[in-house]
Amino acid sequence: MVMKLLFKMDSETKEEIPVNEEFILCGGVETQVLKCGPWTNLVNDPSAKRPKLLIFIITGNPGIPAFYVPFAKALYSLINKRFPVWVTSFAGQVLAPKDKKILTTLDDPNAQEIQDIYGLRGQVEHKIAFLRTHVPKETKLVLIGHSIGSYICLQILKHAPEIPIIRSILLFPTIERMSETPNGRIATPFLCWLRYALYAGSYFLLKPCPEKLKSWLIRVVLERMNFQSEVSPLSSLEPFCMANAAYLGSQEMRQVLKRDNETIKEHLPKLTFYYGTIDPWCPKEYYEDIKKDFPEGDIRLCEKNIRHAFVLYSNQEMAEMVADWLKDDLAKIEAEA
Question: Does the annotation mark 279 as catalytic?
């Protein structure tokens, strides 16, 4: 009986959950949005049919939503398909296929360009602009940030207090001293001092490469990792996208230094932190430090040896935990309806 139930849930996650892919103009830049569930336009949906809450995932860097599809679908299934789950790309890190229409709105304030949109501050403004334009003001939000997405979640809470965020879940959060971490010490010289050499290398290696060969390379790598997603991450191999990911990474190393304790303290009741025990981007001592500073906070330490890049290896496990953490919040939303 248990095996039948697990098989049914797994088959639903893989086959029956609609995932709608759109490309919109946000901050003057094409942006990929992946939407789990039947709701594709919250702003223009009749209010009676509109969901009361949206779960919004902010990725790590590189910000490629295709890698988050299995996690988003699993989470959507585990919350019994009651609320939409959306993922957006980082600005400049996913390109629309040539035959894909880029959607705009006539009165879209996002048509105004965001200064340094590919940088860290620009990416924060990019997400705020999306939420202000494509999510109704009365729709409550759950933010799920992964890695640098956790930093962006905190910045949204700080700079856009009018957005009705009821919960923010920060997974493997890179919110402080990034350049001092084991991976940061390796990445900083490449991202900050040798970045232009990386640009040139990726351009000369990948620009002449046929799309069919790129697609084959990605397929082989993902198959070896046993990773499946119906949305292709092909444009992640475009030199333009790789350069923007490296540029954002260089700013992360330079700007993500001191933990924003003021914002954490102000919003602590709605924050959940999840730290890894084998995370070279966010060592265990960072968990111990923040736990010491905020002993009353919902700050958790992984007991399952889940890796930082959980979307590649442990998306079902992670979705199960997140769904459990959200159980009470979602029940309250349904009670208000």
Answer: yes
Cα distance between residue 167 and residue 262, in whole Å = 17
Which is the catalytic residue, given 147, 168, 179, 229? Answer: 147
Q: SS3 of 86, please?
A: strand
Q: Is 327 helix (H, G, I), strand (E, B) or coil?
A: helix
Select which of 150, 179, 235, 279 is catalytic: 279
Q: Is 199 exposed, middle or buried (0-12, 13-18, 19+ CB in 10 A)?
A: middle
Asked about 107 being catalytic, the answer comes back as: no
Give the global pTM. Answer: 0.88
* Series of mean pLDDT values for 10-residue runs along the chain (337 residues): 40 66 91 92 78 96 92 96 96 88 63 85 96 94 98 98 97 98 93 69 63 68 66 73 92 97 98 97 97 98 95 95 97 84
Given a contact cutoff of 8 angstroms between Cβ atoms, the answer to whether 154 and 263 are in contact is yes
Contacts of 238 (CB under 8 A, 6+ apart): 95, 206
Burial of 47 (0-12, 13-18, 19+ CB in 10 A): exposed
Q: How many helices (H) and strands (E) does the chain have?
A: 12, 9
Element holding 129 (H helix, E strand):
helix 120-134
What pairs with residue 53 in β-bridges? 140
Query: Is residue 308 annotated as part of the catalytic site, yes or no?
Result: yes
Report phi then psi at 56, rounded to 5: -120, 115
